[in-house]
Amino acid sequence: LKPFWVKRLRQLLHPSPPSAIRTHQLTMAPKAKAPKAAAKKAEAPKVEEAPKVEEKKPEKRKAEEEKTEEAAAAEPPAKEAKFEPVTEKETDAPADNRKALTGEISFHVPDTTLNVIPTMGGKVLASLTDGGCQYLIAGARANVGMKAGRYMFETRILEVLPLPDAGGFGRKGAPASKAMVRVGFSTAGSPLVLGDSEEHVFFDTDGGCCMGKTRNPVCRKFFRDQTVGVLLNLDAKSENNNTISLFIDGVRACQPQALPEGLQGKTLFPHLAFRGVKVLMNWGPEPMKALPFKCRMLGTAPDADAVKAKAPEGKDGKYEVVLPVGFPDEGTFEWLDSFLEKSPEYVELSDRQIIKWAASSGMFASKGWGGSNDKPAFNYSMPGMDDNSIRRIINSMAGLMPRNYVVMEVRQNLCEADRKEILKRFSAPCFKKVAHVVMGEPKADYKKVQHEKILKEKQAKSDAAWRAAKADKKRKKDTEKKAKQFAELRKKMEEEKKKKAEEAKKKNEEAAAKKVAEAEKKKAEAAEKKKEGEEKKEGEEKKEEEKKDEENKEDEKK
After folding, report:
1. Is 51 exposed, middle or buried (0-12, 13-18, 19+ CB in 10 A)?
2. Cα–Cα distance for residue pair 148/62, rounded to 1 Å
3. The dihedral of CA 369, 347, 278, 249: what is its sign?
4. Range with the lowest mean pLDDT among 131-140, 171-180, 222-231, 509-518?
5. 3-class secondary structure for 56-75?
6. How far is 256 from 175, CA to CA, in rounded Å?
7. Backbone phi, then psi, for 119, in 5-degree steps?
8. End-to-end distance of the chain based on CA atoms, in angstroms?
9. Residues 6+ apart with CB under 8 A from 46
10. Contact criterion met (CB below 8 Å) for 396 and 388
11. N or C: which end of the chain has fewer CB within 10 A?
12. 399-449 tens-digit pLDDT
């Protein structure tokens, strides 16, 4: 068998849990006493598996499996944030005899997203995992906030739910990871999905700390079955005043992180956002994992340091279900935006809101044809989203959760039969149905808002046109400047070229004159040598003649 089919066969015989599809998924906690290499390898999920059936394997297949395991072990581990040990500045909390907070900490229905399912009095939170809701991040904000002192709360991931692999995870535009948890604090009335507002501060399972929309990897990751404690220090006498800290199983996981200036001095409520998990919340009185110092739990905070949000109550004890009735493209959604701005306690039920929620959860639809303001196109290429199952699930859950709703279905709200079908979902006695007719001459405040919006759009277009003209003018100016510089550079290059040609010509002329002078000099030297040679030769001939004359004379004498 080839290695690919060996690996595929092993996956079929012993399938991994869905939470192990990616290394950044929530997994079992690594063993504390394991060595470093083993600790990094332990980040893979440790879930109870079915008993393995022993079978005889061929030696060749066994050798191939060993090679596959060695190659997997040789892969470099994923990079994590560097954590430097910190000198603990937190001290034991002194005894406090002030009156403790009355009532239990819980989650009000309007402070939870439509896919949150609280159980056991709000101590255990889960989310819907069908019909596309498995892709959406669930959010829940507690009903007790902190305005002073130093307190903490704890959470623990009880279970990683088997989310189906839609094929869109890891694809551009799809969520970066499946199961995830974000835990921290937020202000009252801020968006329920942590990370959508500058009034959020939280830690996530991937080891990041987010201040508003800015994320920095500053701490260790946390996993299933680990107790995560979030400590908020608003004690003016403490060295770590206006900081938030993360503790994993009672051990500090990061340096104290300073709160943004925009959140200092405000009441901050515990906030949790999660997907694909079940989590346990602990408000006290005792922590599940003790810290290196004594710290009081949020559930034991006195009234002077805590603020308890009032339980939402509808008008006359009932919650309103508003159905806007208006013509398409006649300002219905503009009216809805102004209505929600004035009445933020209402929840919008529309396809537009589902797309916004999906974007907050890390999903973005691809561009495609079709769709309108009332029914935008769902082009996510993910089951449960494109087949509109998510709309069916959310509409079903809305009728079970008592809160104020605005059902923005332009076409259906215009038709009597469709309106009756919508109202059947809100048959509980706690709901009051209201039809708001958005037709005719608008009110002065609506006109003012729309005029300001139109003026703002015109100003934005004017500013864009002015910036474009300015950029075009600057571009032309830069082009002319570059052309001028190029002309000057070209002229300079031509002058340098001419100068070099003249210098070369002068050098050539000097070299030629020098060559002629040397030739003449050599010619003169040759002529002089020739003359000297001739004179020397004549002298020698004369000497020989004289010598012969002398010899002849001697011969004559003899």
Report:
1. exposed
2. 63
3. positive
4. 171-180
5. CCCHHHHHHHHHHHHHHHHC
6. 29
7. -135, 165
8. 131
9. 27, 28
10. no
11. C
12. 888 999 999 988 888 898 998 899 999 988 889 999 888 888 888 887 888
Residue 116 has pLDDT above 90, yes or no: yes
- What is the rounded distance in angstroms from the CA atom of residue 310 to the CA atom of residue 108? 9
CA distance linking residue 40 with residue 104, whole number of Å? 40
Q: Are 136 and 113 in contact (CB under 8 A)?
A: yes
As a whole number, mean pLDDT of residues 197-204 equals 94
- Name which of 324, 405, 322 is nearest 109 in CA terms: 405
Is the separation of the CB atoms in 154 and 231 below 8 Å?
no
Model pTM score: 0.68
Q: What is d(CA 332, CA 439) in angstroms, rounded to the nearest whole number?
A: 9
Q: Enumerate residues 6+ apart whose C-beta is below 8 A from 286.
A: 297
Say how far apart CA 290 and CA 316 lie, in whole Å: 46
- CA neighbor of 231 nearest in space, from 222, 220, 244: 244
Question: By C-alpha distance, which of 446, 453, 211 is closest to 336?
Answer: 446
- Where do we find the tokens 């970066």? 176
Of the candidate ranges 37-41, 165-169, 401-405, the one whose mean pLDDT is the lowest: 37-41
> Quick one: tokens of 51?
């008993």
Least Cα distance to 147 among 285, 271, 295, 264 occurs for 264
Residues near 514 by beta carbon (within 8 Å), at least 6 away in sequence: none
Identify residue 192 by its one-letter amino acid code. L
Contact 319, 401 (CB under 8 A): no
Alpha carbons 151 and 54: distance in angstroms, whole number: 53
Q: What whole-number distance in Å separates Cα of residue 293 and Cα of residue 38?
A: 30
- Which tokens belong to 39? 């600790």
Say if strands 347-349 and 405-407 run parallel, antiparallel, or are unpaired.
parallel
Residue 17, pLDDT above cutoff 60: no
CA R_g for the chain = 44
Q: What SS3 state is found at 112?
A: strand
184, amino acid identity: G
The pLDDT of 61-72, averaged and rounded, is 41
Place of tokens 């202000």: 187
| CA dist., res. 348 & res. 354, Å (int) | 9
- pLDDT score recorded for residue 185: 96
Give backbone dihedrals phi and psi of 68, rounded to 5 degrees, phi first.
-60, -45
pLDDT digits (tens, 9 = 90+) for 450-486: 888 889 989 999 999 999 999 999 999 999 999 999 9
The one-letter amino acid code at 171 reads: R
- What is the crossing angle of helices 444-557 and 332-342, to 10°? 100
Q: Which residues are within 8 A (CB) of 317 and not within 5 positions of it... i.e. 6 or more apart?
A: 430
d(CA 38, CA 46): 13
